[in-house]
Amino acid sequence: MNTDIPLDTSTQHDQHGRWPQAESVEDFRHNLAAVHARITAACQRVGRDPTGVRLLPVSKTKPEASLRLAYAAGCRALGENKPQEAYRKWEALADLTDLQWSVIGHLQTNKAKLVARFATEFQALDSLRVAEALERRLQAEGRGLDVFVQVNTSGETSKYGLPPDEVAAFLRELPAFSALRVRGLMTLALFSAEAERVRECFVLLRGLRDRLRQDAPAGISLDELSMGMSGDYEIAIEEGATVVRVGQAIFGARATPDAYYWPSAGEGETN
Asked: Which one of 75, 90, 179, 207 has the minimum C-beta count within 10 Å?
């Protein structure tokens, strides 16, 4: 997709200090505008329509007060890694009735009841056990849930997600779960300052999606590609991302450096 564009030689993962804390509504508006501008520029480089990319602000580890500022600045969807943390925030911000929640980190089956109760979207589906647990809980709640199948494109054992060669068989099982609305695939790229190594993960996911979409089971949509975070979302957009998960570039750096979060035996990502 990007053969005619200049290639970056590094990502922004190794610039932890570049993201100051957002401490006011104006800070959030500024950061959101900056991210949207970079999304637009990345789209223009490859001839894409920027409206085809959804920004998911990631609020993990951030306090309720910060989330309220982000909401005041216009955020109407937030991504969280840990189901229990997300559930607590959902309860605390229950007065913001149009705020939607996306769970983007690994889910244990015993936490499926939390996700089924409040989440609009779950981006880390990678096992039938989790699909079964979510289906049971969602049916009890009378709800449906948009889901993305997580794929391990970097081959790192520390990361969750299905190996690429197991995704087709996994998708064939999913029509049995009527409460799960499959929207696409998700991945966490290699955490590296070398842009081309990161890009390879995104190229792999897009290619896999394109092949699988040709004979996807009825009711299984593979239109969406969730890939790219604060350090690499522009590369992801160049390679076809339709959802980018951006936290630190909007909320500010977390209290610990990126290396603390990645890789982390699957605990999530360093959005």
From this structure: 207
Whether residue 107 contacts residue 62, with contact meaning beta carbons closer than 8 Å, is answered with no
* Pairing verdict, β 243-246 and 54-57: parallel
Looking at the 3D structure of the chain, how many domains does it have? 1
- pLDDT tens, 129-180? 999 999 999 999 999 999 999 999 999 988 999 999 999 999 999 999 999 9
pLDDT, tens digit, 9 for 90 and up, residues 74-130: 999 999 999 999 999 999 999 999 999 999 999 999 999 999 999 999 999 999 999
Domain assignment present for 88: yes
Q: What is the CATH number of the domain that holds 75?
A: 3.20.20.10
- In terms of Cβ atoms closer than 10 Å to its own Cβ (0-12, 13-18, 19+), residue 86 is buried
Domain span including residue 232: 16-253
Long-range contacts of 63-72 (CB under 8 A, 24+ apart): 64/89, 64/92, 64/93, 66/22, 66/251, 67/93, 68/93, 68/96, 69/22, 69/23, 69/24, 69/25, 69/27, 69/28, 70/22, 70/28, 70/250, 70/251, 71/96, 71/99, 72/25, 72/28
Question: What pLDDT sits at residue 268?
Answer: 41
